[in-house]
Amino acid sequence: MKYKTVFWTTVCTILVPNLAPAEITQWVIQSTERHNGGASYGSVGQYEVLKGYAIGELDPSNPLNAGIVNLDKAPHNGNGRVEYKVDVEILKPIDMQKGNGTLFYDVVNRGHKVILPFINLADGFTVVWSGWQGDLPTSPDLLNTEFPVATNEGQPIIGRSREEYVDIGTGKFVGKLTYPAANLDPSQATLTAREKERDPRHRIDSWKYLTDRQIEITAPGAPYDAGAIYEFIYPAKDPIVMGIGFAATRDVNSFLRFELTDGVGHRNPLAEHTSLSDKSGRFELPLNQAAQQRRPTTDREQHNDDNQESDTKQESLAIKHAIIEGVSQSGRFTRDFLWQGFNEDEKGREVFDGAFPIIAGSRKTFTNFQFAQPGRFSRQHEDHLQPGDQFPFTYATQKDPLTGRVDGILKKCLETHTCPKIFHLDGEFELWGARGSVVVTDGNPDGPRDITLPPNVRVYMVAGTPHGGGRGPIIPASRSKGICQNFQNPLGSLVVVPALIRALNDWITTGKEPPQSRYGSVSRHTLVSSNQSSTGFPNIPGVTYTGLFNSLRVTDYNVQPPAEGAEYGVLVPKCDRDGNSLAGIRLPPLEVPIATYTGWNLRATGHAEDECCSTSGSYIPFARTKAERIADGDPRLSIEERYQSHADYVQQLTEAANKLVDEGYLLPADADYLVEEANSDVIKKLFAK
Q1: How far is CA 438 from CA 169, 250, 525, 570, in A?
Q2: Cβ 220 vs Cβ 193: under 8 Å
């Protein structure tokens, strides 16, 4: 399909030859409905939801697509390009002129939308979602994809793939295979078991193929308990070209931001008018000057101003800025998207002005690989050896102390002047479970040192939080420990997200300085080695402290199982006398505590005891009275010793919440929520005489 690209001037129209950009060949809207029953949001008014799909195609010979693993081995159409399809959903103001001009792209997590509870629609954002993960089951509840399978000139590609199963119990278990087995010969595959992640592997034979996508494991019993790790390595076939997810994300958002129509003339749903046409009846937005000469990111807001009108009125696009955000898996995707250079579209334009990876730690994703498994991520016990978390770890370009490589998350976009402004947000778990300290230190095994982050990056860590969570109550609704030793930590690291979304958009659109980074550092002695003498974690009766965290080593993934080498220096937060983190943003429940809240927890007896308990943190309540504290031998002051009354507690917590509002880390509504929690009946009972 041939396209014209036009520069508008007062003198003439110039054709730009030899441009072959990736295309959204079809943009199809299948349904439109009012959002939330037609509710109105401030001065923005009502929103509508558009659901449909986008079909695109990629040129494997284009240097910006060359890094997509196996793209050259995917089926090509008559134009020599690789086609794909992704589901798309848009939540937009009905009157786009009342919006704030910012496209907010929420990277879906395993096909699910995430950010909507944390975004204020009265601010006028246009929110966009699209599928990117190519191995999800087809479901109306998920944003799906159709990506091709790679072949060797039509013959199946076969390679070793690895599955891991944890917490399967002590009986029979059916394990799913991400890719079909190339054959069902059990001698070609191996199943091993180990109780703890660092234990030696032992081969077991109590398994069989049920189909080419399922195996049945019979747990062998002692010495393996219900938390043992089972690792299955087998010959797999038919790898999906999973890296297309990055290019599809780039091209869907580039289309919405810059183009007026798709390849067959369907109108961009974010366009305002339809008044600029060429002779074919199609509508096009003139090419940004960045396609001819890349410019520094400080000039990126000029992309609309560069599109001048001549004697023909030009159609306008309501979107002037764009932010990419992702939580957990999709936060890792966001970092990977930047590192692999996909924030530059094929016309040289910067796709996103802002990026907001949330609770990703230092990791990327297991996506752009042959036999990729994007849903997996490394923890201390589970899936520890999954690819996607090797150097680089931070946004600054630096030399790796162990391999000597020079790289950074922003290295490619710095070279092309397409780097966005970045907010990186972690919870405390990400320092224990996702090696978050190497986002702000050099990872030197002989003693990590602080690094200088680029000026377009701010980093935040919410102290005392597990992986994720929303606002989170102050006291857990359930006192179940599950398979962990301690109660589950109820706090949520995402309580600060609404304030930071607004701050990031202000930084991009008006230049208003955002809240200062608050993460922890070596120089301030808030990031330390994990041993108890360094962290200062108190000796709490009934609580085991080991200092165990998800270690990080140079890893060779070209062998199965992967081989680990030298270990990086990873740090964790230093504690106050209650065991609460001194690093990061300390929420009111940490500033005015009634418990110890940590980003770590340990597995209980019968479940790989003393290994890290997945993504959970710990809630360890204070004694109510001095007498109870002394009887228990608890070194932490009791609630009775800390506060004169419940009213005193609420007053102090309110002051702490208001301080975070003043500093820009909380919105008033989120501060009010925490104060309401402090006034709840369940907390009042702790102060009853």
Answers
A1: 35, 27, 15, 7
A2: yes
Give 397 or 289, the one with higher predicted confidence.
Answer: 397
Residue 223: asked if its preceding bond is cis (omega within 30°), the reply is: yes
Based on the domain organization, do 309 and 430 belong to the same domain? no
Q: Which one of 192, 216, 237 terminates a domain?
A: 237
Mean confidence (pLDDT) of the chain: 91
- C-alpha closest to that of 431 among 421, 422, 441: 441
Is residue 10 pLDDT above 70, yes or no? Answer: no
Q: Would you put residue 584 in left (φ > 0), alpha (ψ -120 to 50) or beta?
A: left
Number of structural domains, the chain? Answer: 3
**For residue 685, is it left (φ>0), alpha (ψ between -120 and 50) or beta?**
alpha
Asked, for residue 689, whether it belongs to a domain, the answer is no
Q: List the alpha helices (DSSP H) in 360-449.
A: 411-416, 429-433
Higher pLDDT, 7 or 250: 250
Both structure tokens of 633: 């031998």
End-to-end alpha-carbon separation of the chain, Å? Answer: 79
Q: Are 567 and 445 in contact (CB under 8 A)?
A: yes
Position 9 confidence tier, pLDDT thresholds 50, 70, 90:
very low
Same domain, 134 and 177: no
Residues 311 and 417 in one domain: no
Cβ–Cβ under 8 Å, residues 88 and 253: no
Same structural domain, 388 and 437: yes
d(CA 610, CA 225): 13
Does residue 276 share a domain with residue 189?
A: no
* Helix (H/G/I), strand (E/B), else coil: 347: coil
Mean pLDDT value of segment 93-108: 97
Range of the domain at 57: 6-149+242-319
Do 479 and 516 belong together in one domain? yes
Answer yes or no: are the C-beta atoms of 90 and 322 closer than 8 Å. Answer: no
Give the mean pLDDT of 148-161: 97
In angstroms, the CA 592 to CA 503 distance is: 26
What does the chain come to in residues? 689
**Residue-wise pLDDT tens digits, 565-595:** 999 999 999 999 999 999 999 999 999 999 9
Q: Please write the tens of the pLDDT for every residue from 647-656.
A: 999 999 999 9
Q: Which of 169-173, 318-322, 511-515, 557-561 has the lowest mean pLDDT?
A: 169-173
